[in-house]
Amino acid sequence: MNVLQELQALNYLAVLVATLASYLLGFFWYHWGVFGRCWANSLSLTKEEADNTQGLGWAFFISLTSGAVKALWVAFLLSLAGISGVLSGALFAATLAVAFTATSIGYYNGFARLPSRFTCINGAHSVAELALIGAVIGLFS
């Protein structure tokens, strides 16, 4: 396997679309009318505090960058595994999220004594985000 050749062969339009889809999912997922109220309440935040984005520019940048890194790696792994299609891509990426991300969020938050609602919302977002990324990458393959 030549990693450089594999990276050059990736569909970067798919990676870009998956990155943007990931970012938009976060916007909707944490919207007050979806999981935002429960998420904020689990941290004892009011709606006004949760809606205040002042000083969060770096967090938004990291969120977008994180989505791009995840989309690139999912595309790379799907390519290596020879997996294509929306459902196969989504299932593969969701499995990665459960195995690596959601489980880590669970024990990080457990030791930090954060509320289980907070952990469940963030863990489920992680799985949904990678499933969406995998579906988008799979759609383009």
Automatic annotation (TrEMBL):
Stated name of the protein: DUF1761 domain-containing protein
Species per Swiss-Prot/TrEMBL record: Motilimonas pumila
Biological classification of the source: Bacteria, Pseudomonadati, Pseudomonadota, Gammaproteobacteria, Alteromonadales
Keyword set, alphabetical order: Membrane, Transmembrane, Transmembrane helix
Transmembrane segments: 12-35, 56-80, 86-108, 120-140
Keyword Transmembrane helix assigned: yes
Pfam families: DUF1761
